[in-house]
Structures are given as C-alpha cells and as structure tokens.
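It is time I had a proper look at our fold encoding. Can you supply me with one protein entry, sequence and fold together? It will help me judge whether the discrete encoding reads sensibly. Leave the record below and I will have a look:
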Amino acid sequence: MSTKNLRSGLALATSWVLGACGGGIEPIPVPPDAGLGPDTIRAPIRLVTERLADSAPYWVGALPNDGILAAYPDQILRIETATTSALSPTDGQIVGVGRWEQGLLVAASDGFYALHEGGLDRSPLSDALTDLQPADLLPISRLGHRELWIAGTSGLASWSQGQLQRLRPGALPTAGCRLAYGPKISGIEAVWAACQGQLYGLVDDGAGPKAHPQAAVSDVRSLAADDAGTLWIVNGQGHVWSRGSAGDWRPHDFALEATQVMAEGPDTWIHTASGLWHHNADGFAEVMGLGDARAMLATAPGQVVLSSGAGLLRGHLQRVVRLDGLSANALLQAPAEVSIYPLQPEMVTSVVATLDDVEVAVIAQWQVNIDPADLADGSHVLSVSVTYEDGQVLSSTLRFSRYAGPPPTWTQDVRPLFEGRCAICHGNDSGARRLDSSALWQEQIDAILYNVTTENMPLPPSEPLTADELQRIEGWVAAGYPEGD
C-alpha cells in the first residue's frame, strides 16, 4: 500500500478550535478523613507469564486480537498469536499505535505511518501536522469513542469523520501531553490530558471542545482510566490519586514511590520503586515473583506486558486459551484451520471442541478444521474446552458466519432491526448515543456487539435480541457492512 493510495482516501480539513475554560471546574477532592477509609489490600498475587521476544524493546503498543507491536532501535516486531514478523524501523522513535478510520496508524517522533501486512508507509497525516512531532496517540476505542487524538511536542489535535482539528484549550498547556479516555464530565464522554503537570478533561457539549481543569491534583506524570469510571494518576512525588465517577478525588497509601499507572478493562496496574501492584474492584494486591521485570503496557483485561532481562514478557492474571486462524465475527467463505493456543501447554491434559454444541475432531497440534460446505447459512459458534493437569478447565469461544447466498445488508436487515429495537433510545432526536446510520454502526460496532451479545442492550423492559437478530448483525459485519439496495 503506497502513500499515494492512502492519500487518495483521505480528505484533510484542518480547523483550529479554541476550547473555552470555565463552567466545568471539578469538585474539590474529598479529604482523606471524610469516610473513605484506608485502601483495601488483598493477598499478594503471581502472574502466569509467556515470553514474547528474547530482548526488551524501548516501546510496546497493543494491536487488535491480542497482538503486540514492539519497537527496537534496529527493527520493529509485530507479534501475533501464531507468528512474529520483523519490520524496518522508523527514522524516529515510535510513541503510539492504534486504530482509526483508515486502518492502523503508528505515531513516531518523525511523523505518522500506516501499518499494514507488508510493513509501514508514511501517512498523509504527517504532511497535515508537520509541526506537531507526536508524543502520544489515543486511538479510536472499542468502547465507542470515534475520535483519534494526537498529542505532540507542540500541541494537541484530533481526527474524526474526515475532520482534523488543532486544539487550544484557553491558557492551559498543550505540549507533551499524555492522554486517556476516562470518566464522563457532566454526563459527557471525556478525554483526559496531563500536560506539563496539569490535568484537564476535554468534552464536546455540541458547541465545541471545552476544557475542565482539575485543581485538585498537580504535577501529574502518568494517567490511566479503568472501565469502572475511575481515573488514576501518579504525581511527581510518587503518590497515587484516583477520581471516581462522581468527581471526587482521593489519595491512596497502599505503596509509595509510584512511577507509572496503566489500565485496561477492570484492571489497573501501578509500577512502584518496590515492584508492581494490581487493582480491581476487590482492592490492591502486590504482584510477586517478577524479579527485575517492569510493566510497560496493559493490553487487555487481565494482561500486562513486561520488560525484563529475560526479554519481553506478557503476564496474565490467569491462564488463557487463544484461537487463531479465523477472526471473530468473520464470514467463512473457504475451509479454515483454527489453531488452539493454551497458555502453559505443557500442563494440558485434554482439549475438546464443539461446533454449534456438536463435538468435532481436534487433530494433531490442536487444530480444528471447519468447512463452510458443512454449515447452514447464519451464525455459528466454535467452543473449545481445555483441561489442565491440576484440574482447571478453561473455555474459549469464536463466533463466525456463513452465507452461501447474499449476506445481510444494512437496508434490508440491520436498519429494520434498528428501527424496531433500538431507535427509541438511539435515534436522531433521542438522548442516548446516535446509531441511526450505517456509518455510525460501523464506527461503534465493537461496543454494539459487546452490549447486545452480553444482553446489556436493549435496556429493560425490552427483551434481549433473539438469535436470529444477532445473526443478522454478525453476518452484516462479517460480510464487510454491505449497504444493500
């Protein structure tokens, strides 16, 4: 994929936005003696680790489907479940990677690159933001955030729906920011920025971005947010503070000399001078047995990437089973070999697989062969159960679709489902997030699939989607979002 081809698909429209301050100052923090009580400390924990590479990189980033991008001075490693490929390094140091409207984007100190199967190509964003010099990248989120946020040594910018905006939030600093999606402000989705020690939230209330500075904390060096609506920060004194969904700030005393915080899903990881700590809804726990390993990135719920003298490691709160060879929600058009990768394979005693609740053969090297000719049209589920010698049983599932004839389309299948089941809350004039177009569904499809398959949506008293309705959505996604007549 050449830069010329990429450029033909981009329409860069640059605008400068002044973010008004005021009207959004957050509450003063709740004093430590106001009834919050001391931190809850759990028993120490140990991680199950796997080695990803023989040496430690200077930077790592998360890719889709549990992939890792690891940057070294002389090469870049793209680490997938079954393969590791080496790419040529960029001229500048990599600082971020993530998904946006055009695919996968890599930010380096010398500009932006499109990441594809063949390697890296320079992105047209480099020409549009020649003076920015990227320092951090906040990609489009699986939780439904539609903007790509870019922090540079000279300012802030965002990209959404073909529009590139440079942001200047009043007198607040914008250089060298660290970014995180975090808790809402006044009920509006917020992006949080720590810039030159100051912390503020950015929200768009329909009249343009506004900045909400947080006077409660200062000298912020690291920030992250979990999916419980808690924002975590580490300040220059090595202290950890958190902001709850109600806007209250509180200090934490579980450990001193913290240097970095990272979060993904319900898990927060805090690196301190004495080692790594983990936090979830049950409290804080010290992570034991890591030796010289240092946390670099939280990549998925229950997972953290570590660098050590032994190389690049991935630590897991518990064993996992990965499936490779067929993507989740894919449209199966040709026979596929699905490989099963359990963590700690030397301890596995048996592997059992079922396809639509019917047991299928697991052949040598733990593979399952799936032929679309054997399947009816619609959605299908491959389930794998792995038993370990200590008696633990783990399961993993993979949903996919098969259509011999025309797959579902937006016009004939998904839009009628939306109008009948979703429009009352997600229509053009409703209070919830709009979902009244194919484009909006595509931008937020990860969040949509998660909410309907877990029966979080539709909200009661509406009934959950039926199996047929789920198949329509999954088949439409698998087919590449066809519009229809």
Observations:
- Residues 410-421 form the longest helix (12 residues).
